[in-house]
Amino acid sequence: MQNLTQENINKSSEFMESGKSSTALESIESAESGKYAESVEPGKSIESIESATPNAQESNIESNQESNIDKMIREAKEAQEKRLKQIDDISKMSPLDMPMALEQLELYDMIESQAIIDEVYKHFATNEDMIDSLLKPIGCKVLNGVFEAFSWGRALRKRGITPERLINECGGGFSYENGASNINYNDPYMENKNERSLATKNEFLSEEYDSSKYHDSSKISDYKENNTSPDGTIIDEYTGKKIAREDTDTDHIISKSAFHKEVVGNTLMGDELKKNVALTDSDVKKAINVGANYADTDKSLNRAKGDKSVDEFVKHMKEKGTPLDKKTEATMRKKEGEAKEAIQTEANKAIIKNLTSFDATSRQMYMNISSAAATQAGNQAVGAIVMFITPPLYYELSQVITDKGEKMTFEERFNRLKDYYINNATKFTLGTATDFLKNVVSMFAEIVINAFLGIYKIIFKIIKEGIKILIDAFKLIFGKDSAKMSPEEKGDAILKLIGAAVAGLAGIGIEALLNYVGIGEPLSIVLATIFSGILSVVLMVALDKMDLFSLKSQKRKEAIEKIFDERIAQIRETKEALDEKVLKALVEQKKKFDGLMGDIAESLKTDNMASLNTKLYEMADFMGVKTEWSNTRECMERIQTGGRIKL
């Protein structure tokens, strides 16, 4: 019997190693593993402790992370309920099976704990899934750019409705518990596009071009006189040749009509002057007739150039078959650049004067700017109403069409929608009113800044975005929710605010560059929207990868702590159950084992073989040893025939 028992133990150990343990043990493995046991197999464990939202808007990552951790803890609790049930089964096992079951239970605890830690580290090392963190946001940005090619797409954009926003807020960003995502989509580039699409009124600038309004005969005469040599000749400022004064004209390098054109070659003076809200006709006249915008040149060359830009003139001469020589072309390009800078400087002086004089003209300009800012803020408010209505409506329709989620009648869904709109109407109204005021101020500043030319505009835009970042940073550091954020979270959020502003400003630069190389609107806007969008996504992912404030380390630590706090509670509960049930079962098994051993000893002492056999069978049943015979006769027959005895 002793040999048979040892063989049974060896066999059970083989089952343990191969995974082919008894039925009771297999049920423990199945229940114990639950969602956690899958973590032993790569790719099937906690797949997203920190999942990112599609818009590359990183502000929602933490909330999704929390929900995923909570989900995992909930699943752990469900597995714990099954575990406790299996402890009952352990307490009913034979003495031989029980140690293996307890060992397997402890083994799974060790495997799961290590797998969870490994998976958390692996996840934070690889960050979010590439589709969610990179490809999907970039796809949204591309769609934003494509929409810019259509008038209706630009009209929707003015109201803050873009493909990116629709996808993010309708396609998974909405829930009745949390509402819509409320992501701010107004980056600097979008504000710049919206400002330029406004029909800002300026009654101090002529809508139609009239050459006489911008011609200054006195200045032109003085300029030509100063360039005339005593011998009556003038050096052609384009070709360098000496010619008679009567054979020369004074050319406006950037023509008087340029500011009435949308885009003039490389100069872009049309966009900067024609729609300027802070200039008058007299200001433009003074800027156009600045000395650096004059060039005395041969009459034939001047008349061939006309009101063309240098780019247009060079192209025109090539088409005629009489291309300009390289030196003349280079000189003309250089002087055009100098003229542009001089015009911008003169115009900026006039803009500052007009905006700071606070006379009747200045007050009217401010009224025009305020009206335009309010118009754009109103457009944004209309878009906000649409986005308040759309996500829950889309949610209900998608539930019906896909037949997923709760089984509800049409009336129940309608009532849920109605209740949502009613319950959130006040909060939405107050939020929209606040956003309206913010948008008025922001757009007012944008219109004023866009009135400036050249480096002034760039400097003021950087200052504006810097102020916005400081305000948002102040809210992050001292706001009502700041206590809930760690220093690492605040630093990371501020860094990404800066990154978003840089990407938005880059969009403005990209569009200007595209226009400079001859790609005009709307294609330049489409491409700039796509490029700046991709840049913003890549920049955010790069900042997340760099993790300058060790935020991932902190999040990883918090995730592990939260998960293992729950695990520790479960271990305590399991220990109490084991102490209560398994130890009690062990005590009872010890008593029964001692009783059977006493009976076997007594049978041997009295040489009562019938009793001995009976007690040995009872011991085999008690120890869980299964034989291929049911009585002594069958056993003896097997031995006599030379058959192998298996337990």
Salient structural properties:
single chain; 647 residues; mainly alpha; two-stranded antiparallel ribbon; 23 helices; 4 strands; elongated; disordered N terminus
Overall description:
This protein has 647 residues and is an all-alpha fold. It has helices spanning 2-18, 23-37, 61-91, 97-126, 130-147, 151-158, 163-170, 188-196, 211-214, 217-227, 269-273, 281-288, 299-305, 310-320, 326-357, 360-402, 410-451, 455-478, 487-516, 523-546, 551-606, 609-623, 632-640; strands spanning 233-235, 242-244, 248-252, 294-298. A two-stranded antiparallel ribbon has the order 1-2. A two-stranded antiparallel sheet has the order 3-4. Strand 1 and strand 2 (242-244) form a beta hairpin. Helix 15 packs across helix 16 (360-402). It is elongated.
